[in-house]
Amino acid sequence: MLPTPHGPADAHLADDGAHPTVADGRAPDEGALQRVVEHLEDVPDDERTTDGASGGDGTVAAEVGPVAAALSDTRHTIDGLNPAELLFLAQQRALVAGLCDDPGDATAVGALFDRVREQWAQAEDRPDPRSLADAFGVALGDLVRAQAPALDWAVCSDRYGTEIVLAQRTPEVLVYPIAAVAQYWESAAQGWFVRHLADVVHGVVPRAPAAVED
């Protein structure tokens, strides 16, 4: 199972009160937006108002709407891995290496993923897939790192919990390979692993500008 020795914590806000993921005009990452949606689902209808509230001096104070409140809940911290988490990664790599001749070959790992997932899907009594998702999630992350060396394994903590991720601090980029494999494990079609790897790399690796012809 994924170790979670770090507790959730809030990231330091910029001096102007802006959230670090939106202070420079960038949109929050996909995970942050998902948390916004989850937050809004929990907000009672009678609280979903943007009308101003009258202050004690008769002035109308601007009310923070539910979207702004939800965005304030997406603060997070990025930390390096501790010894338990480093051991966890090493254990997952050993599992994949024991079944794959070359864990650095995306095609070979993808084929192994397809075989293992198919065997799991056909089992009468399916085991808990979390351990499989952990192993292939780490393999996926290592393959992403091979093509995007600016990313490194780290821990992302927020009020919802802690996850091992790939992170780049400036500009901030977060990739969730372990969570992605866990999320798509039951529905992944043949070839999903290799396609998802390509999609992630396409999204995080800077592309050279096209040559301009004279």
Task: Please specify the SSE layout and strand pairing.
Blueprint: H1 30-41, E1 53-54, E2 60-61, H2 66-71, E3 77-79, H3 83-97, H4 106-122, H5 130-147, E4 152-158, E5 161-168, E6 173-175, H6 177-184, H7 192-204
Antiparallel strand pairs: 1-2, 3-4, 4-5, 5-6
Helix pairs in contact: 3-5, 4-7, 5-6, 5-7
Features:
214 residues; two-stranded antiparallel sheet; 7 helices; alpha+beta; four-stranded antiparallel beta sheet; 12% strand; Four Helix Bundle (Hemerythrin (Met), subunit A)
Description:
- This protein has helices at 30-41, 66-71, 83-97, 106-122, 130-147, 177-184, 192-204; strands spanning 53-54, 60-61, 77-79, 152-158, 161-168, 173-175.
- The protein is globular and about 45 Å long.
- It has 2 domains: 30-74, no CATH class; 77-203, Four Helix Bundle (Hemerythrin (Met), subunit A) (Up-down Bundle).
- A hairpin with a 4-residue loop joins strand 5 and strand 6 (173-175).
- With 214 residues, the protein is α+β, with helices and mostly antiparallel strands.
- The protein starts with 29 loop residues before the first helix and ends in a 10-residue tail after the last helix.
Beta-sheet strand percentage? 5-15%
Helix tally equals 7
- Portion of residues within helices: 40-55%
Instruction: Note poorly predicted spans.
Output: 1-56, 59-72
Integer count of domains: 2
Mean pLDDT: 75
Question: Order of helices and strands, N to C?
Answer: HEEHEHHHEEEHH
**Largest beta-sheet characterization:** 4 strands, antiparallel
State the CATH architecture of the largest domain. Answer: Up-down Bundle
CATH topology of the largest domain: Four Helix Bundle (Hemerythrin (Met), subunit A)
Radius of gyration: 21 Å
Instruction: Compute the separation of the termini in Å.
Output: 57 Å
